Amino acid sequence: MFHTKKIYFTPDLKISEIIPDNPYLLLFFEHFGITLPVQDKSLETVCKENGLSLGMVLTFANLFNGVTQVSDPELSFDDTKAIILYLKNSHEFYSGEIYPDILNTIEQMAEVNDSSEMSLVKKFFINYFSEVNEHLDYENKVVFPYVLDLYDQIKNGEHRKKRKEYSVVQYRDQHNDIEEKLDDLKKLLIKYLPQKNDRMLRRKLLYSLFELDYDITVHSQIEEFILIPLVEKMESHLNQSK
Amino acid sequence: MNRLVNIIAVETSPLISEGLAGILNKSGIHCRLSIASSLEEAELLQAKQKHELIIVNPIFLNNNSKLFHSIKSRFERVKWVGLVYALYDQEIISMFDALITASDNPSTVTDTLNKLLDEENGTEQGSLQEILTGREIDVLKLLATGNANKEIADKLNISIHTVISHRKNISQKTGIKSVSGLTIYAVTQKLISIDTIRE
What we know:
The structure holds 2 protein chains of 2 kinds.
Chain A: E1 2-3, H1 15-18, H2 25-31, H3 43-49, H4 54-64, H5 80-112, H6 116-155, H7 168-192, H8 199-240
Helix pairs in contact in A: 2-5, 5-6, 5-8, 6-7, 6-8, 7-8
Chain B: E1 5-10, H1 14-27, E2 31-36, H2 39-48, E3 53-56, H3 65-74, E4 79-84, H4 90-93, E5 98-101, H5 106-123, H6 134-144, H7 149-156, H8 160-174, H9 179-188
Helix pairs in contact in B: 6-8, 6-9, 7-8
């Protein structure tokens, strides 16, 4: 039996003490530009040092630790830039680090496992990778600039400029697709793909897939529960000040 | 009972929820327990993954029974268990399928939950079986070799609606949702050969 253990973050918690409970948090801090070592610093101190609002980091960190956000998070428009920084850094992690890493492991696996199924898995991942890149590219080039632009307009007291609207619905669908295929890949490796000299590589691959899955799940929760509501708030704020 | 049962407990007292986890751990019910601290959180968890049982402290229903009713009607299959350790209005208590109380001994708790799970099993027979039916295999083969829903419907002389319902069952049984993933599955099960896959 598996019991979900949740640790609620508080401002005075030492980062060094919380990481052993959930090592994936290393990634979380990296996405905010916070790197090791952290000595005995508390969350609050690190936020101050990095110019991050404590409330926002707490919201994110709790989400990351499995505490699902239900009510409206306490975020101000001024958090926009840090939110986008977090999302951009995690994109960088996906496209620059973990996806290429996974592809590399799959290629190594295909060298030792010459079954036709394995060649299909490789093809599956290559297609999937390019879909992911397309999605990340779309967010980097369309969504994030749109959000930052909204923020600038608010800061400068401008009226809302007419812009080409992007569809939040389309954006959500793509997310589901990315998580779904990742899940399919894990299931194929765990349940069905015939074993052929790939025990060690398969395990490494699965560890990476779980790491990616964890980060991506939180990533889409942040976009869904934090970014999208914030964008909606900014849009209505700008519309009102017309 | 061998299958994995997903359970949510909506309870803010760690003493109670940890105690419940301990009892479940020893109950022989093969389960995964998630703790939620509000009905809204339970709703989110349920939307993400199907849970068979949701155990709720009735205190969350005070002034909130509207939300409870709406969740209840949205997730028809779920069994609702009240976790009672205070006095509540009969009206609230009657909304649950069963009750467990803080003074129950572990075997009573286990029995109550098992009874609900057995009922659930009876109504859902077959769908937990992971072997595909002959018709599902027909659909899977055509799907994996690059046919669209409409083509599958025409070739098997069934409606598109039926094709979609077969596909849903195939994904539920295999755990694989994407067409490209199902194609690989079909090859691993020797249902199709690799050279029949349409590029």
